[in-house]
Amino acid sequence: MLIKLYEDNPNARVIRKIANVLREGGMIIYPTDTVYAIGCDIFHARAVEKICRLKNEDPRKANLSFVCPDLSQMSEYAKVDNPTFKLLKRNLPGPFTFILKGSNRLPRHFKEKSTVGIRVPDNGIVQALVIELGNPLMSMSLHDSADQIEYTTDPELIDERYGNRVDMVIDGGIGGIVPSTIVDCTQDEIQIIRQGKGNLIL
Question: Which of 77, 139, 183, 202 is at a distance of 20 to 30 A from 89, taking alpha carbons?
Fold first, then answer.
């Protein structure tokens, strides 16, 4: 099902409908401030596994990110010291994935992971969605280097390709092709693991 939403004013009734699908274990494809992503409610282990299968990833090894609306919710699921919090505040919301040490609030199926990737995208649709959901989205980029770009940027082509494998495809306009910048905050020194769209302000 392809659903059109506008980033500057996403329809609240439609956002509630999508959040309910997620609460019931559904999977969606949605826009971010970088590339389109595939996501589900972090508390639905079966949906997490389905996304990993869709992307041919081992759930125990996959690079999964949590999408949060703000630093407050993020700090529930990750351990953040004061210098790291200041770094995050300078750069979020924005096109970054910060790798942080996970907290004891992580759902059971993530307990094997000592770290978690956290995103706070600068996108009105996903912001409204995670606020309505009340907890993070588990997220993986749809973009694959082997893919033809159109099939991961054009919502109609995304729906044509993946629509029968997910519950909803959210059309938020043409997506980007440059992924987020990945920043590892788990060591003594901050490390940029992948330079993407975001330029980190230290």
Answer: 139
The domain in which residue 112 lies consists of: 2-194
pLDDT in tens, 33-75: 999 999 999 999 999 999 999 888 877 777 789 999 999 999 9
* Contacting residues for 155 by C-beta, under 8 A, at least 6 apart: 2, 31, 36, 169, 170, 171, 172, 173, 174, 175
CA–CA dist 175, 63 (Å, integer): 21
CATH number of the domain within which 78 lies: 3.90.870.10
Residue 5 burial class via C-beta count within 10 angstroms: exposed 0-12, middle 13-18, buried 19 and up: buried
Helix, strand, coil % in the chain, rounded to nearest 5: 30, 20, 45
H helix intervals, 79-190: 82-91, 124-133, 150-153, 155-162
- The Cα–Cα gap between 157 and 165 comes to 14
Q: What is the DSSP letter of 108?
A: G
d(CA 64, CA 84): 20
